[in-house]
Amino acid sequence: MPVPQECATVSTDLLAFLGFAFAASATPGPNNIMTLATAARHGLRATLPLILGVALGFGFMLTVIGTGLAQPLASHAGLHTALRWAGAAWMLLLAWQIARAGSPAAAESPRVGAPVGFWGACAFQWVNPKAWILAVATTATYTLPGENLTAQVLVLAGLFMLVTLPSLGAWALLGAGSSQWLASPRRMRAFNIAMGLLLAASVVPAVLE
């Protein structure tokens, strides 16, 4: 029995979007680097709220942008640029703090040594230039004119969240697996510097888009 052309098109578009979502969430970026660093310093369990915060926070952000902010941002390039640079500046500050951090045992205060929690990860999406670009690109590329925009965006946000959870989970496992090797203060210091530099470097492509 032949498959209707509409169903074939939807299936193809869905597969294309899932590939895009996986590539966007699994490749190195601010969220991945933050997850890796947190798991290495604090363990897998302490990183779970961060992972959930990233997934749900970006899903919410995509919903808000897709249903209301995408058009104003597209119409006002200056606003989009200002938000992107403000987010980049905040992330560079975070990269500096990560690079300067010592080992967990040597943390001078609970605030310095505390892992990023659920709400912190949610809020982080709004200053993450890569997240802004992904949200706008997803809305522009994978929604269809003339259809129910809200329903489309909700489906895309839900799928993105489902893909993000295992992607960040893999990065967390990688970080947690390296924690024993990082027991040496010298190695942890070098790791923190490397993570800070990677986070700073990950800002550059997003800003130059």
From TrEMBL:
<keyword id="KW-0472">Membrane</keyword>
<feature type="transmembrane region" description="Helical">
    <location>
        <begin position="153"/>
        <end position="176"/>
    </location>
</feature>
<dbReference type="GO" id="GO:0033228">
    <property type="term" value="P:cysteine export across plasma membrane"/>
</dbReference>
<protein>
    <submittedName>
        <fullName>LysE family translocator</fullName>
    </submittedName>
</protein>
<keyword id="KW-0812">Transmembrane</keyword>
<feature type="transmembrane region" description="Helical">
    <location>
        <begin position="47"/>
        <end position="70"/>
    </location>
</feature>
<dbReference type="InterPro" id="IPR001123">
    <property type="entry name" value="LeuE-type"/>
</dbReference>
<keyword id="KW-1003">Cell membrane</keyword>
<dbReference type="Pfam" id="PF01810">
    <property type="entry name" value="LysE"/>
</dbReference>
<keyword id="KW-1133">Transmembrane helix</keyword>
<dbReference type="GO" id="GO:0005886">
    <property type="term" value="C:plasma membrane"/>
</dbReference>
<dbReference type="GO" id="GO:0015171">
    <property type="term" value="F:amino acid transmembrane transporter activity"/>
</dbReference>
<feature type="transmembrane region" description="Helical">
    <location>
        <begin position="188"/>
        <end position="208"/>
    </location>
</feature>
<feature type="transmembrane region" description="Helical">
    <location>
        <begin position="82"/>
        <end position="99"/>
    </location>
</feature>
